Amino acid sequence: MSPVSDESIEITSSEHMTRVVLRGAFLIANVTKLEQRLGAIAATSPVQADLSAVGRIDTSAAWALATLQLRIEQAGQSFEVCGASDKVASLLRTVTDALPRIESQPPVRTSLRDRIETVGRAVTQAAQFVLDLIRYYGLFLSRLGRALRHPSEFRLTALVHHCEDVGLRAVPIVALMSFLIGVVLAFQGATQLRQFGAEVFVVDLLAISILRELGILLTSIVVAGRTASAYTAAIGSMKMREEIDAMRTLGLDPAMTLFVPRILALVLMLPILGLVADLMGLFGGGLMAWIDLGISPAMFTTRLVEGTDVSHVFVGMIKAPFFAVIIGIVGCHAGMQVKSNAESLGRMTSNAVVTAIFAVIVADAVFSIVFGQIGI
Q: Does one domain contain both 147 and 92?
Protein backbone atom coordinates (compact mmCIF):
# COMPACT_ATOMS: atom_id res chain seq x y z
CA MET A 1 0.00 0.00 0.00
CA SER A 2 1.24 3.50 -0.86
CA PRO A 3 -0.33 6.36 1.07
CA VAL A 4 -0.82 9.78 -0.44
CA SER A 5 -2.04 12.27 2.12
CA ASP A 6 -2.36 15.94 3.02
CA GLU A 7 -4.11 17.87 5.78
CA SER A 8 -7.66 16.68 5.12
CA ILE A 9 -7.56 14.06 2.33
CA GLU A 10 -5.91 10.66 2.49
CA ILE A 11 -5.97 8.28 -0.44
CA THR A 12 -4.56 4.79 -0.20
CA SER A 13 -4.63 2.40 -3.10
CA SER A 14 -3.92 -1.26 -3.55
CA GLU A 15 -4.59 -3.90 -6.14
CA HIS A 16 -7.95 -4.74 -4.61
CA MET A 17 -9.34 -1.38 -3.36
CA THR A 18 -8.79 2.35 -3.22
CA ARG A 19 -9.66 3.94 0.11
CA VAL A 20 -10.46 7.65 0.44
CA VAL A 21 -10.52 9.17 3.95
CA LEU A 22 -11.79 12.74 4.33
CA ARG A 23 -11.38 14.81 7.49
CA GLY A 24 -12.64 18.27 8.35
CA ALA A 25 -15.00 20.60 6.48
CA PHE A 26 -15.35 20.47 2.70
CA LEU A 27 -16.90 23.61 1.29
CA ILE A 28 -16.73 25.48 -1.97
CA ALA A 29 -13.52 27.20 -0.88
CA ASN A 30 -11.51 23.97 -1.05
CA VAL A 31 -13.59 22.01 -3.59
CA THR A 32 -11.02 22.58 -6.33
CA LYS A 33 -8.35 20.67 -4.41
CA LEU A 34 -10.86 17.94 -3.56
CA GLU A 35 -11.92 17.62 -7.19
CA GLN A 36 -8.32 17.38 -8.37
CA ARG A 37 -7.45 14.70 -5.84
CA LEU A 38 -10.56 12.65 -6.53
CA GLY A 39 -10.15 13.07 -10.27
CA ALA A 40 -6.71 11.45 -10.07
CA ILE A 41 -8.16 8.18 -8.73
CA ALA A 42 -8.02 5.46 -11.38
CA ALA A 43 -11.25 3.58 -12.01
CA THR A 44 -9.52 0.21 -12.03
CA SER A 45 -10.59 -1.07 -8.60
CA PRO A 46 -13.43 -0.63 -6.11
CA VAL A 47 -13.45 2.62 -4.12
CA GLN A 48 -14.43 3.13 -0.48
CA ALA A 49 -14.99 6.65 0.87
CA ASP A 50 -14.70 7.07 4.64
CA LEU A 51 -16.59 10.20 5.73
CA SER A 52 -16.70 9.50 9.47
CA ALA A 53 -14.34 12.42 10.22
CA VAL A 54 -16.16 14.93 7.98
CA GLY A 55 -17.65 17.81 9.96
CA ARG A 56 -19.36 19.88 7.29
CA ILE A 57 -20.02 19.39 3.59
CA ASP A 58 -21.84 21.49 0.98
CA THR A 59 -23.24 20.69 -2.44
CA SER A 60 -19.95 21.44 -4.24
CA ALA A 61 -18.07 18.77 -2.28
CA ALA A 62 -21.04 16.42 -2.56
CA TRP A 63 -20.95 16.98 -6.34
CA ALA A 64 -17.24 16.04 -6.44
CA LEU A 65 -17.95 12.80 -4.55
CA ALA A 66 -21.03 12.04 -6.67
CA THR A 67 -19.03 12.60 -9.86
CA LEU A 68 -16.36 10.19 -8.58
CA GLN A 69 -19.05 7.62 -7.78
CA LEU A 70 -20.61 7.94 -11.24
CA ARG A 71 -17.21 7.54 -12.94
CA ILE A 72 -16.30 4.49 -10.87
CA GLU A 73 -19.67 2.80 -11.44
CA GLN A 74 -19.59 3.48 -15.18
CA ALA A 75 -16.21 1.71 -15.26
CA GLY A 76 -17.85 -1.37 -13.75
CA GLN A 77 -16.40 -1.01 -10.25
CA SER A 78 -18.18 -0.58 -6.92
CA PHE A 79 -18.27 2.60 -4.83
CA GLU A 80 -19.05 2.54 -1.10
CA VAL A 81 -19.57 5.39 1.36
CA CYS A 82 -19.11 4.56 5.01
CA GLY A 83 -19.15 6.47 8.28
CA ALA A 84 -21.18 9.43 6.94
CA SER A 85 -23.59 11.19 9.27
CA ASP A 86 -27.26 11.33 8.40
CA LYS A 87 -27.00 14.92 7.23
CA VAL A 88 -23.96 14.28 5.02
CA ALA A 89 -25.45 11.05 3.63
CA SER A 90 -28.74 12.80 2.82
CA LEU A 91 -26.99 15.64 0.97
CA LEU A 92 -24.77 13.22 -0.92
CA ARG A 93 -27.77 11.09 -1.90
CA THR A 94 -29.70 14.17 -3.11
CA VAL A 95 -26.82 15.40 -5.27
CA THR A 96 -26.17 11.92 -6.65
CA ASP A 97 -29.81 11.52 -7.68
CA ALA A 98 -29.74 14.93 -9.39
CA LEU A 99 -26.74 14.12 -11.59
CA PRO A 100 -27.63 13.66 -15.26
CA ARG A 101 -27.09 10.10 -16.38
CA ILE A 102 -26.75 9.12 -20.00
CA GLU A 103 -28.54 5.85 -20.44
CA SER A 104 -27.56 3.86 -23.46
CA GLN A 105 -30.58 2.90 -25.46
CA PRO A 106 -30.51 -0.53 -27.03
CA PRO A 107 -30.82 -0.44 -30.82
CA VAL A 108 -34.42 -0.67 -31.85
CA ARG A 109 -35.05 -3.33 -34.42
CA THR A 110 -37.85 -2.41 -36.74
CA SER A 111 -39.77 -5.29 -38.17
CA LEU A 112 -41.81 -5.33 -41.35
CA ARG A 113 -44.93 -4.83 -39.26
CA ASP A 114 -43.44 -1.68 -37.66
CA ARG A 115 -42.56 -0.24 -41.04
CA ILE A 116 -46.02 -0.93 -42.39
CA GLU A 117 -47.48 0.71 -39.29
CA THR A 118 -45.29 3.80 -39.84
CA VAL A 119 -46.44 4.08 -43.45
CA GLY A 120 -50.06 3.59 -42.36
CA ARG A 121 -49.81 6.33 -39.76
CA ALA A 122 -48.29 8.71 -42.31
CA VAL A 123 -51.07 7.98 -44.79
CA THR A 124 -53.71 8.45 -42.09
CA GLN A 125 -52.22 11.79 -41.05
CA ALA A 126 -52.09 12.94 -44.67
CA ALA A 127 -55.72 11.94 -45.19
CA GLN A 128 -56.73 13.75 -42.01
CA PHE A 129 -54.88 16.86 -43.20
CA VAL A 130 -56.69 16.79 -46.55
CA LEU A 131 -60.02 16.36 -44.76
CA ASP A 132 -59.22 19.37 -42.57
CA LEU A 133 -58.52 21.46 -45.66
CA ILE A 134 -61.81 20.31 -47.21
CA ARG A 135 -63.57 21.24 -43.98
CA TYR A 136 -62.07 24.73 -44.10
CA TYR A 137 -63.13 25.00 -47.75
CA GLY A 138 -66.69 24.13 -46.74
CA LEU A 139 -66.48 26.66 -43.91
CA PHE A 140 -65.38 29.34 -46.39
CA LEU A 141 -68.24 28.56 -48.77
CA SER A 142 -70.71 28.57 -45.89
CA ARG A 143 -69.56 31.96 -44.63
CA LEU A 144 -69.44 33.36 -48.16
CA GLY A 145 -73.04 32.29 -48.71
CA ARG A 146 -73.97 33.88 -45.39
CA ALA A 147 -72.28 37.11 -46.49
CA LEU A 148 -74.33 37.07 -49.71
CA ARG A 149 -77.56 36.60 -47.72
CA HIS A 150 -76.58 39.23 -45.12
CA PRO A 151 -74.37 41.84 -46.85
CA SER A 152 -74.18 43.92 -43.68
CA GLU A 153 -72.00 41.23 -42.08
CA PHE A 154 -69.47 41.32 -44.91
CA ARG A 155 -66.33 43.36 -44.17
CA LEU A 156 -65.69 45.32 -47.36
CA THR A 157 -62.91 47.41 -45.82
CA ALA A 158 -60.95 44.27 -44.90
CA LEU A 159 -61.46 42.93 -48.44
CA VAL A 160 -60.07 46.11 -50.00
CA HIS A 161 -57.12 46.08 -47.61
CA HIS A 162 -56.23 42.47 -48.44
CA CYS A 163 -56.70 43.08 -52.16
CA GLU A 164 -54.14 45.85 -51.94
CA ASP A 165 -51.76 43.70 -49.92
CA VAL A 166 -52.15 40.57 -52.05
CA GLY A 167 -52.46 42.20 -55.46
CA LEU A 168 -51.05 45.70 -55.74
CA ARG A 169 -47.96 45.12 -53.61
CA ALA A 170 -47.19 41.87 -55.42
CA VAL A 171 -47.19 43.42 -58.91
CA PRO A 172 -43.49 44.45 -58.95
CA ILE A 173 -42.10 41.04 -58.00
CA VAL A 174 -44.52 39.18 -60.28
CA ALA A 175 -43.78 41.49 -63.21
CA LEU A 176 -40.02 41.25 -62.78
CA MET A 177 -40.11 37.47 -62.41
CA SER A 178 -42.28 37.01 -65.50
CA PHE A 179 -40.14 39.40 -67.55
CA LEU A 180 -37.00 37.44 -66.71
CA ILE A 181 -38.70 34.11 -67.37
CA GLY A 182 -39.72 35.40 -70.81
CA VAL A 183 -36.16 36.51 -71.52
CA VAL A 184 -34.75 33.13 -70.48
CA LEU A 185 -37.30 31.16 -72.50
CA ALA A 186 -36.69 33.23 -75.61
CA PHE A 187 -32.92 32.98 -75.33
CA GLN A 188 -32.88 29.22 -74.68
CA GLY A 189 -35.55 28.56 -77.30
CA ALA A 190 -33.68 30.61 -79.90
CA THR A 191 -30.46 28.71 -79.15
CA GLN A 192 -32.14 25.36 -79.80
CA LEU A 193 -34.41 26.36 -82.72
CA ARG A 194 -31.56 28.12 -84.57
CA GLN A 195 -30.04 24.70 -85.25
CA PHE A 196 -33.06 23.83 -87.40
CA GLY A 197 -33.62 27.24 -88.94
CA ALA A 198 -36.93 27.59 -87.11
CA GLU A 199 -36.21 30.68 -85.04
CA VAL A 200 -39.62 32.16 -85.80
CA PHE A 201 -41.29 29.39 -83.79
CA VAL A 202 -39.83 30.89 -80.63
CA VAL A 203 -42.93 33.09 -80.62
CA ASP A 204 -45.17 30.01 -80.44
CA LEU A 205 -42.98 28.56 -77.73
CA LEU A 206 -43.31 31.70 -75.64
CA ALA A 207 -47.04 32.04 -76.21
CA ILE A 208 -47.97 28.47 -75.30
CA SER A 209 -45.58 28.07 -72.34
CA ILE A 210 -46.30 31.44 -70.73
CA LEU A 211 -50.00 31.84 -71.46
CA ARG A 212 -50.94 28.25 -70.76
CA GLU A 213 -48.64 27.17 -67.91
CA LEU A 214 -45.75 29.23 -66.63
CA GLY A 215 -47.45 32.59 -66.26
CA ILE A 216 -50.13 31.56 -63.78
CA LEU A 217 -48.10 28.72 -62.21
CA LEU A 218 -45.07 30.84 -61.30
CA THR A 219 -47.34 33.67 -60.18
CA SER A 220 -49.19 31.26 -57.89
CA ILE A 221 -45.91 29.96 -56.47
CA VAL A 222 -44.76 33.49 -55.70
CA VAL A 223 -48.11 34.34 -54.13
CA ALA A 224 -48.05 31.08 -52.16
CA GLY A 225 -44.67 31.95 -50.68
CA ARG A 226 -45.63 35.55 -50.04
CA THR A 227 -49.28 35.40 -49.03
CA ALA A 228 -49.72 31.98 -47.43
CA SER A 229 -46.94 32.79 -44.99
CA ALA A 230 -48.46 36.21 -44.28
CA TYR A 231 -51.90 34.71 -43.59
CA THR A 232 -50.42 32.07 -41.30
CA ALA A 233 -48.31 34.60 -39.42
CA ALA A 234 -51.17 37.06 -38.97
CA ILE A 235 -53.79 34.54 -37.84
CA GLY A 236 -51.24 32.57 -35.81
CA SER A 237 -50.12 35.70 -33.96
CA MET A 238 -53.74 36.51 -33.15
CA LYS A 239 -54.23 33.00 -31.81
CA MET A 240 -51.05 33.22 -29.71
CA ARG A 241 -52.33 36.44 -28.12
CA GLU A 242 -55.76 34.82 -27.60
CA GLU A 243 -57.41 37.37 -29.86
CA ILE A 244 -59.32 34.59 -31.62
CA ASP A 245 -60.86 33.58 -28.28
CA ALA A 246 -61.66 37.23 -27.57
CA MET A 247 -63.44 37.52 -30.93
CA ARG A 248 -65.59 34.49 -30.13
CA THR A 249 -66.36 35.99 -26.71
CA LEU A 250 -67.53 39.18 -28.41
CA GLY A 251 -69.77 37.18 -30.73
CA LEU A 252 -67.58 37.61 -33.83
CA ASP A 253 -67.12 34.66 -36.16
CA PRO A 254 -63.40 34.21 -36.98
CA ALA A 255 -64.25 32.51 -40.28
CA MET A 256 -66.39 35.45 -41.41
CA THR A 257 -63.98 38.06 -40.07
CA LEU A 258 -60.62 36.54 -40.99
CA PHE A 259 -61.04 33.83 -43.62
CA VAL A 260 -63.57 35.22 -46.09
CA PRO A 261 -61.87 38.59 -46.82
CA ARG A 262 -58.45 36.99 -47.20
CA ILE A 263 -59.47 34.11 -49.46
CA LEU A 264 -61.84 36.27 -51.51
CA ALA A 265 -59.06 38.84 -52.02
CA LEU A 266 -56.87 36.08 -53.45
CA VAL A 267 -59.67 34.88 -55.73
CA LEU A 268 -60.12 38.41 -57.10
CA MET A 269 -56.45 39.39 -57.43
CA LEU A 270 -54.68 36.23 -58.59
CA PRO A 271 -56.23 36.31 -62.10
CA ILE A 272 -55.12 39.95 -62.44
CA LEU A 273 -51.61 39.04 -61.31
CA GLY A 274 -51.64 36.15 -63.77
CA LEU A 275 -52.58 38.52 -66.58
CA VAL A 276 -49.74 40.87 -65.58
CA ALA A 277 -47.37 37.91 -65.58
CA ASP A 278 -48.50 36.87 -69.06
CA LEU A 279 -48.01 40.36 -70.49
CA MET A 280 -44.60 40.87 -68.89
CA GLY A 281 -43.46 37.40 -69.92
CA LEU A 282 -44.40 38.03 -73.53
CA PHE A 283 -42.78 41.46 -73.38
CA GLY A 284 -39.52 40.01 -72.07
CA GLY A 285 -39.60 37.22 -74.64
CA GLY A 286 -40.36 39.63 -77.47
CA LEU A 287 -37.53 41.92 -76.39
CA MET A 288 -35.02 39.05 -76.33
CA ALA A 289 -36.32 37.75 -79.70
CA TRP A 290 -35.76 41.23 -81.17
CA ILE A 291 -32.25 41.48 -79.77
CA ASP A 292 -31.09 37.92 -80.41
CA LEU A 293 -33.06 36.85 -83.48
CA GLY A 294 -33.94 40.14 -85.14
CA ILE A 295 -37.67 39.48 -84.91
CA SER A 296 -39.21 42.95 -84.88
CA PRO A 297 -42.01 43.81 -82.45
CA ALA A 298 -44.47 44.03 -85.35
CA MET A 299 -43.50 40.58 -86.64
CA PHE A 300 -43.60 39.19 -83.10
CA THR A 301 -47.10 40.60 -82.56
CA THR A 302 -48.35 39.31 -85.91
CA ARG A 303 -47.00 35.85 -85.30
CA LEU A 304 -48.40 35.87 -81.77
CA VAL A 305 -51.91 36.82 -82.91
CA GLU A 306 -52.02 34.50 -85.90
CA GLY A 307 -50.35 31.45 -84.38
CA THR A 308 -51.76 31.47 -80.87
CA ASP A 309 -55.26 30.34 -80.06
CA VAL A 310 -57.14 32.33 -77.46
CA SER A 311 -57.90 29.07 -75.65
CA HIS A 312 -54.38 29.11 -74.21
CA VAL A 313 -55.23 32.31 -72.34
CA PHE A 314 -58.45 30.84 -70.96
CA VAL A 315 -56.67 27.62 -69.93
CA GLY A 316 -54.23 29.67 -67.89
CA MET A 317 -56.78 32.05 -66.41
CA ILE A 318 -59.31 29.40 -65.41
CA LYS A 319 -56.74 27.91 -63.05
CA ALA A 320 -56.25 31.14 -61.11
CA PRO A 321 -59.37 31.04 -58.86
CA PHE A 322 -58.70 27.42 -57.92
CA PHE A 323 -55.07 28.16 -57.07
CA ALA A 324 -56.19 31.19 -55.07
CA VAL A 325 -58.63 29.15 -52.97
CA ILE A 326 -55.97 26.53 -52.31
CA ILE A 327 -53.40 29.11 -51.17
CA GLY A 328 -55.88 30.96 -48.99
CA ILE A 329 -57.27 27.86 -47.29
CA VAL A 330 -53.80 26.44 -46.61
CA GLY A 331 -52.64 29.72 -45.09
CA CYS A 332 -55.72 30.17 -42.89
CA HIS A 333 -55.72 26.54 -41.78
CA ALA A 334 -52.05 26.70 -40.80
CA GLY A 335 -52.65 29.90 -38.84
CA MET A 336 -55.38 28.24 -36.80
CA GLN A 337 -53.05 25.35 -35.92
CA VAL A 338 -50.52 27.62 -34.20
CA LYS A 339 -50.01 26.91 -30.51
CA SER A 340 -49.11 29.37 -27.78
CA ASN A 341 -45.38 29.63 -28.55
CA ALA A 342 -43.17 31.27 -31.16
CA GLU A 343 -41.64 27.96 -32.25
CA SER A 344 -45.06 26.73 -33.34
CA LEU A 345 -45.68 29.94 -35.29
CA GLY A 346 -42.43 29.58 -37.22
CA ARG A 347 -43.01 25.89 -37.93
CA MET A 348 -46.58 26.39 -39.18
CA THR A 349 -45.55 29.37 -41.34
CA SER A 350 -42.90 27.25 -43.02
CA ASN A 351 -45.34 24.35 -43.42
CA ALA A 352 -47.93 26.65 -44.97
CA VAL A 353 -45.53 27.82 -47.68
CA VAL A 354 -44.36 24.29 -48.53
CA THR A 355 -47.89 22.87 -48.51
CA ALA A 356 -49.33 25.70 -50.61
CA ILE A 357 -46.62 25.41 -53.27
CA PHE A 358 -46.94 21.62 -53.38
CA ALA A 359 -50.74 21.80 -53.61
CA VAL A 360 -50.59 24.36 -56.42
CA ILE A 361 -48.21 22.19 -58.44
CA VAL A 362 -50.38 19.11 -57.91
CA ALA A 363 -53.49 21.06 -58.94
CA ASP A 364 -51.71 22.31 -62.06
CA ALA A 365 -50.77 18.74 -62.97
CA VAL A 366 -54.39 17.66 -62.53
CA PHE A 367 -55.58 20.52 -64.74
CA SER A 368 -53.03 19.58 -67.41
CA ILE A 369 -54.26 15.99 -67.44
CA VAL A 370 -57.92 17.03 -67.56
CA PHE A 371 -57.38 19.55 -70.36
CA GLY A 372 -55.33 16.98 -72.26
CA GLN A 373 -58.11 14.41 -71.99
CA ILE A 374 -60.80 16.79 -73.23
CA GLY A 375 -58.57 18.11 -76.01
CA ILE A 376 -58.13 21.71 -74.91
A: no
At residue 161, φ and ψ (nearest 5 deg) are -60, -45
Q: Above 70 in pLDDT, residue 187?
A: yes
Q: Give the predicted TM-score (pTM) of the model.
A: 0.71
264 CB contacts (<8 Å, ≥6 apart)? 144, 159, 162
Give the DSSP letter of residue 29. G
CATH number for the domain harbouring residue 11: 3.30.750.24
With respect to residue 125, please indicate whether it lies within any of the assigned structural domains: no
Query: Is residue 246 a part of any domain in this protein?
Result: yes
- Order of strands across the sheet with 47-57? 2-5, 9-13, 18-26, 47-57, 79-82
The C-alpha angle 12, 17, 21, rounded to 5 degrees, equals 40
Please report which confidence band the pLDDT of residue 6 belongs to, taking 50, 70 and 90 as the band edges.
Answer: very low
In sequence order, what are the residues at sequence separation of 6 or more whose Cβ sits closer than 8 angstroms to the Cβ of residue 171?
Answer: 273, 276
* Range list of β-strands (E), the chain: 2-5, 9-13, 18-26, 47-57, 79-82
| Whole-angstrom distance, CA of residue 11 vs CA of residue 2 | 9
Q: Work out the mean pLDDT of the chain and round it to a whole number.
A: 87
At residue 24, the 3 state secondary structure works out as strand
Domain range for 26:
2-98
